[in-house]
Amino acid sequence: MQKIRIVVIYGPEAGREFLLTGDKITVGRSPQCDYRLAKDDRISGRHAVLEWQDDQWCVRDLKSTNGTWIESGGEWRRAAASERLCNGQKLMLGSTVVQVKIDGESQLSPLVEKTPDTLEGLILPVSAQREVLRVDLSGETLKYQLLTSNAYGTQYTAQWCQDDSRHVTTRMEGLVRSVNHMRKDSARGDDTHIVKDLESIGLFLRKHLIPKKILDKLDKTTSAELFISHPPALVNLPWELLYIKEKPICLGFSVGRQVLLEDYSYVIAPQRKKSPHMLIVANPTEDLEAGQEEAELLFHTMRQENPEISIDFLSGARVERIDVLTRLEQTDILYYVGHAFHDPVHPSDSGWLLSGGCITASDFRRLDHPPRFVFANGCETGKEAQWGHEDAYNSGVYGIASSFILAGVTNFIGSMWPIATESSTFFAQNVFQGLVRHLSVGEALRQARLQLIHRYGQAEIVWASYVLFGDPGNRIFENKKV
Q1: In CATH, what number does 269-470 get?
Q2: Average pLDDT score over residue span 63-90
Q3: Which fold has domain 2-102?
Q4: 50 phi-psi bin (left φ>0, alpha ψ -120 to 50, beta other)
Q5: Helices in 136-209 by DSSP H: which ranges?
Q6: How far is the C-alpha of 312 from the C-alpha of 316, rounded, in Å?
Q7: Phi-psi category of residue 438: left, alpha or beta, with phi > 0 → left and psi -120 to 50 → alpha
Q8: Which of 288, 232, 239, 236 has its CA nearest to residue 262?
Q9: Predicted local confidence at residue 256, as pLDDT
């Protein structure tokens, strides 16, 4: 019986080591695979196979969505029909990097002795089609590194001024108030100043927040995804409005964020073996008719497009705190449309409004088995107090978004500001239409922004309100044809 050892050196299961036996070992997310990597949404159900052929180990891709990549001489290339594996060689499947150890073979490249905390030092293939922008804060200095097809590049710095951050957030909040006032005015009037103000904020971020060398690289990139890892102090900045290639990055890239916490390791919600379960919670206060209708339409659409998915639908007075929290422990996909609020003084008390009470961020934080994907379509569901002040806030809860993310949710979509019901429900419908077409979360979000602008115009700033926490490349529904 042949043996091969696999060490996961980057990805959701980094640090794990597996000893595999047999002459043919299938690898993927499916429970039927011999070696299962279930936590990486970029890995296909049956992704690749390791085979013992002619007294040597080989790897062969099984027509996976994102391919199987093999490192050779410090460079990555897509695996051919069958590739011989050497001791210490690295493979990339989805966003997971593994290293193989073959007993009895001379060591051709050094095995990793320590699991890296970041992608630094790993060479990733160009076809990943993504940029990772890491931002660290040291005193009043922001340190930027951009990961493209290679390891992290040169570090560039920029001075960080709290007044600049306050200037941006104050301007954005003032603009939102102006838009909400115009919504109440039946005459509406000229709204061209709204578009100009949004552009002005995006250009201000470009000028004062990002080093020129980083901007030059982003302006020239052909990548489709941008994953931003930033410090807690910058969590409420509208990164999505930053101007790159003469437009906000959220319209040109599939954008996602991760907040960097020094003393916290993110938990990943386990993928359940059964068919996905979805929970829709709609209009619990019974005063959002458009939200109710949109949620009902979504319910029927999802059942038609994905008959394998079981869906629970709760609305109106039927929405009760204990019932919702109990159901969430068995839910993979959560969609909420209703009233929500952010409490800046006691952020752990932020939450969703029900007809008789509320469900707080603290409740969500205590979930043992949270959903993998959450779309909370309500006012300020993505707004946060500054992360990291454990003494100031209850149990590390800084808002609704952080309560889900720190509990283990893989992707969270929420709004940073108050939003209009009609346009926000239209937006959500388009997000889920993209997801069921097997788009990544980030791309479904980007296309929904463009659809909303096409229908309502750029002055309807709901398109700019949404923020995605988590990897924008994750896919919620696996393409069964692959």
Answers
A1: 3.40.50.1460
A2: 84
A3: Tumour Suppressor Smad4 (2.60.200)
A4: beta
A5: 162-184, 192-208
A6: 14
A7: left
A8: 232
A9: 94
